[in-house]
Amino acid sequence: MNKYNILVKLINLLVRNPDYGSWLNMVEGFISKFSKQMLNGISVTSKEELENRIYQYFDEIN
To answer: pLDDT tens, 38-54?
Structure first.
């Protein structure tokens, strides 16, 4: 999975946003949930390990 796949997944999340909700609030909520569930308290030794954890999170939520 590459960084373009991440962008596609984020766009897919935004396309499905409700008419009454602000897209910015949805992105903020997503990033907040992501940081609490996946990034809080982790220790990584390389950029690749961090990328793998991010990709794993996206795979889990889809």
So the answer is: 877 888 888 888 888 88
